[in-house]
Sequence to fold (515 residues):
Amino acid sequence: MISLRNVSLGYGGNAVLEGVTLAVAAGDFLIIGGPNGGGKTTLLRAIAGLLEPLAGTIERGHTRFGYVPQHASVESALPLTAMEMIELGASAREPWWKTLVTPRASFHLQALRDCQAEAIAGQPFDSLSGGQRQRVLLARALACAPDCLLLDEPTAGVDRPTQHAVAAMLGDLQRSSGRAVVLVTHEFPPFRDVAGRFYWVQDGVLDELTARDFDYRHDNPASSI
Amino acid sequence: MPETFLFGKALGAAVMIGVLLPIVGRHLILGRAVLLGLALPQIAMAGIAFVFFGASRHWPWAESLTEESTKALVGSLMFGLPGLLLIATPWKRGTRISEAWLAVVYLTSVSATNLMLATDAVGETYLGDLFHGRLLFIGESELKLLGITLSAGFLFLFAFRRRLLLTLTDPDFAAVAGLAVGAWTVAAMVVNGMVIGITVATAGPLVAFGFLVLPVLTAATFARSLRANLWLAMAAGLIIALAGFWLSYHYDFPLGDSVVATGCALLLLARVLHPVFSPVAATRSETPET
Fold:
């Protein structure tokens, strides 16, 4: 599905990550951790196609991505509802002439239902709590019918019960649909039981770890295995 | 009878601008680029001043534009479109336009306009009228051009509103989902630039900026969705145009100033009345949109 071979990533010619080799197949659930500024988001943006590699190759085939950013804010002066957020997102995957007609409301409501956010469909996005916003952003990504979900800190700034709820929801979505999930996070515990592969980014290097080693690194980020 | 005909064209232009311009304003507000809506009319004014300045200096190409309204249209688009594309360059890369740089563009445009007009009495008179809203002097051909531009711009922005609003609100998501964000952003900029440029040339910068912002914000006081906001903004634009026209006709005020003052008063009234209507709005929000 996705393949990175000996990739270097960075900004303005300065590499943040070097020698990255990684393959993601359908049904994989990858979790990427590491200290702040280590290059987690840089790696996710490169997989998403938002950042060109400085060296190496990235193959994505015909993979359709659904992207969940760390934060999304909309102008508070205008009332953009959760349902309208889904409609806008879903329009990206449709041929342009299909976006001229009325959107498929039932499909969009299903995406909200899958994320347990149906009740807030008519609420302005700007008025939602952090956890509700993350559910809407996830529903928007699902409305693109993606083969692979890319999530950048989807539980940042939300309380612990919501973190576990989001993690369980992602696990269910991955198991039921066979989608690949690549997730960058600082909050490892909620995802310990749902993720299948664990990666750690530090000092410009990407390492694959066992869940136990990942747990250790997460609790002791200055250490090395 | 000729006076009635003249006012009919002015009223028609005011109503067209009031009803069709808010969709452009919605783009600018949602894209957090309201200052662009302020700077762009001023860039267009600098272009108009430049053409008048050229004619006063007997530059052949400027002198060949015999009608004042043609000078205004050429100048408005000549500066407005390239200016907009230049300002929008960082935007199509997914970064926000710097408000500080927009302020610099605004200041540069104002000072350049005033300097060019300092030695050009004809241009100074024309731009003076334009600033106060030159709707009363609008001609048949200007009215047609305004109608065609506003209608075409509205149709484009309405038909592709979902993609255009997505690229505005979350360019990263749009790019990952496969949209050509740069192309859609430039297309929106060109359409917005054409609409604003021609509105400025025919109605003036005050009327253009007023109708970009005031109806949308007035509607946002009551609307609970973006869809409802657009229809309410168009209704608010119609009310502002009609009431502003009546005010101007009845008290012999400058039309542009009357229209904008009416828009400000309606926005204030909406904010004052909002608590009265908010329980109704809250009830409406409980029903998911389909």
Observations:
- The two ends of chain A are 30 Å apart (CA to CA).
- Chain A has a mean pLDDT of 86.
- The beta strands of chain A are 2-11, 14-24, 29-33, 55-59, 65-68, 148-152, 180-184, 197-202, 205-209.
